[in-house]
Amino acid sequence: MAEGGPAAQLKESFLKLYTNRPKPQPISTQYEKKPSIQNAFLLAGQSAIAGAVVAGLRNALSGRNGGFVTPIGLFAAVGASFAFTESVVANQRQTDDAISAASGACAAGFLLGISAARSLPMAVGACSVMAGFTGLHKYSGGMQQHQPDPAAEKKSFFKPTAIVEATKRE
């Protein structure tokens, strides 16, 4: 092949690409602030859609018109209070952990308890239950699935029986 052939040109361009490559920057462990208002409006909108679905189902299944405004507004307020409180607490503590999620859930639960039963004990109870479950969920890693090693799983699944072990020894 000629010295200036396609293989040499490809090799030259490959070497240029990988020798002049910038070095990767280290991953920053610094906390990035969450946009509290943006998160609140985003989750309020999503919760309002869920509230519209719930209101529609409630009206369709009950056979009477129970109103659309109350569930939509309640769902939107609960979603916004959760997102806003979680973001503010995470920004103040400069860490996104179970405590910030639990505080957001407590605010949402308190709002639900006040609006549903109109009693302070119900509001405090809803706050503690939602904070407990949400904090535990965040602390335990959420719904992440454990990805075991496929080879180890296969080895443990097909355990040799006593007969197989006896025939191997013979």
Automatic annotation (TrEMBL):
Q: Name one GO biological process term.
A: mitochondrial electron transport, NADH to ubiquinone
| InterPro entries, sorted | NDUFA11
Claim: Mitochondrion is one of the keywords in the record:
yes
Cellular compartments annotated: Mitochondrion inner membrane
> Which keywords are on file for this protein?
Membrane, Mitochondrion, Mitochondrion inner membrane, Transmembrane, Transmembrane helix
Q: What is its main location?
A: mitochondrion
Q: Does the keyword Ribosomal protein apply?
A: no
Residues annotated as signal peptide: none
- Give the GO cellular component terms, alphabetically: mitochondrial inner membrane; respiratory chain complex I
Membrane protein topology class: Multi-pass membrane protein
Which protein is depicted? NADH dehydrogenase [ubiquinone] 1 alpha subcomplex subunit 11
Source species:
Mycena albidolilacea
